[in-house]
Amino acid sequence: MADVKMSARQVRVHYGDNEALHGIDVDIRRNEVLALIGPSGCGKSTFLRCLNRMNDSIEGCRVSGSVTLDGVDVYDPALDVVQIRARVGMVFQKPNPFPKSIYDNVCYGPRIHGLTRNRTELDEVVETSLRRAGLWEEVKDRLAAPGTGLSGGQQQRLCIARAIAVSPEVILMDEPCSALDPIATAHIEELIDELRRNYTIVIVTHNMQQAARVSRRTAFFHLGNLVETGDTETIFTNPGDQRTQDYITGRFG
């Protein structure tokens, strides 16, 4: 399919002798929001981390199968993992700004990747990224202030600005709103809808309503298996598997 941005085929993950993911097959389309739902411990976040090789840093973790980005295997030993993570950015569950200024948080990636030639270009990247993250108007007069001094919702938007400053193609979000209040959550959800125009987004969420609001397609995980993937409305109103129905209606989870 021409509109497939990333693809996983028979992805298995082992932690030592324990198999956490049992052969995951899924396509992630260009400029879509794909929500990963399922009970705690079912493999959603483990799979998300496979997409930009974040599992590489976990001792005893082995990943097999293939994950491709524009048809190229991201696990090819010849590829630079730093470049993979620049193309496939990550926003974590808990906001984790660096102990630096707001400005330095956003320009950190462009600096280490050599994406800008001078201060003027760097200023442009910082402003553009903060605007895209819906944060510019709130922080433009205090860019030298520490990022850790922002509210939780602002910190998460700062982390999103930091992720998009290196011009990724895919953004992975691991429960980005679970530590936020309802107002901050609404800001992030509006932002996801905006970002979809320029990026492919994969979001792990425990919040069914959030998955229904922000995603076009949803994948349901259960006990390390991908049970089914489909249009979000279909998954929520007419799923093809009884396990999906049981989870969505609250019979387990």
UniProtKB/TrEMBL annotation:
The keyword Signal does not apply. This is Phosphate ABC transporter ATP-binding protein PstB. It holds the Pfam family ABC_tran. One of its GO terms (molecular function) is ATP binding. Keywords: ATP-binding, Nucleotide-binding, Phosphate transport, Transport. The lineage of its organism: Bacteria, Pseudomonadati, Pseudomonadota, Alphaproteobacteria, Rhodospirillales. PANTHER family: ABC TRANSPORTER I FAMILY MEMBER 17. Residues 6-248 form the ABC transporter domain. The gene is pstB. The keyword ATP-binding applies.
